Amino acid sequence: MSRIADNYVKLSCTVCKKVNYRVRKNKKQHKEKLELAKFCPSCRKHTPHKEGK
């Protein structure tokens, strides 16, 4: 199974705007943008992270 770069999206913190995570996403099945509550090392707390470009 090959890892194609198109399957990865970057998650950035909505509070400090830093890119903290990179996750895999099936873009054919999930058209909407991803939003998860993740830990931000810069803010030092759990904040919502949204999918960026």
Plain-language structure description:
This protein is mainly beta and 53 residues long. The protein has one domain (5-51): Ribosomal protein L33 (Rubrerythrin, domain 2). The chain has strands at residues 8-13, 19-24, 35-40, 45-51. The protein is elongated. The model has no long low-confidence stretch (mean pLDDT 91).
What's the short story on this structure?
This protein is an all-beta fold.
Main beta-sheet strand count, sense and barrel state:
4 strands, antiparallel
Order of strands in the sheet with most strands: 2-1-4-3
Average pLDDT figure: 91
CATH domain fold name: Rubrerythrin, domain 2
Distance from N terminus to C terminus (CA atoms, Å) equals 25 Å
DSSP strand content? over 45%
Report the count of strand segments: 4
